[in-house]
UniProtKB/TrEMBL annotation:
This is VMO1 protein. Gene3D superfamilies: Vitelline membrane outer layer protein I (VOMI) (2.100.10.20). InterPro entries: VOMI, VOMI_sf. One of its GO terms (cellular component) is extracellular space. It comes from the Eukaryota.
Length: 170
């Protein structure tokens, strides 16, 4: 099954799904975030998400399932569920479309992931936008990711990068 939220950004297309290896699930997450670029520059905020897959709660396998690439930003350190926990749901912080001349559209600015052990893993994204409601929780665990990405618009155009997210339940 798939778990979603209703507040994702409107731009771009859905990329291919990326799945953890069979029998494994996501127990950690890292974020690729572009820092604010300043006045009159193009911001993209949260650009990419990487699920860290584990088998039986052992994160040493090193396998990741990552959303479609974007060139902006830097990767954060991985954040992990504790006590052999795993990801079960998420929420997005999204800046609603500005729809004003010369406005800088950003879309998804941060994400939170719920762990089966009750912990919440929050990304280092931007404070722009509003948090939406939590997705329905996966009955067992998350084992895949799919993102809606706005491709690079080229020189002097407004880029939004990551717009929306779907997680696959296993």
């Amino acid at each position: 099954s798939v778990t979603t939220v209703s507040n994702g950004g409107p731009w771009g297309d859905w990329a291919w799904p990326e799945m953890c290896p069979k029998g494994s699930y996501a127990s950690g997450v890292s974020f690729k975030v572009e820092a604010p670029q300043g006045v009159m520059e193009d911001d993209t905020a949260l650009n990419r998400i990487r699920l860290h897959c584990s088998h039986g709660g052992d994160p040493s396998g090193g396998y990741t399932a990552k959303s479609q690439s974007s060139r902006w930003g830097r990767w954060s350190e991985a954040r992990w569920c504790s006590h052999r926990g795993h990801l079960v749901g998420f929420a997005l912080r999204v800046q609603a479309p500005q729809r004003r001349l010369l406005s800088d559209e950003v879309a998804t600015t941060s994400a939170r992931f719920a762990c089966s052990d009750g912990h919440v893993l929050e990304g280092p994204g931007s404070a722009w936008g509003q948090w939406g409601t939590w997705s329905p929780q996966c009955p067992r665990a998350v084992c895949g990711i799919q993102t809606r990405q706005d491709p690079a618009q080229g020189l002097k155009r407004d880029d939004t990068a990551l717009n929306d997210l779907r997680l696959f339940c296993c």
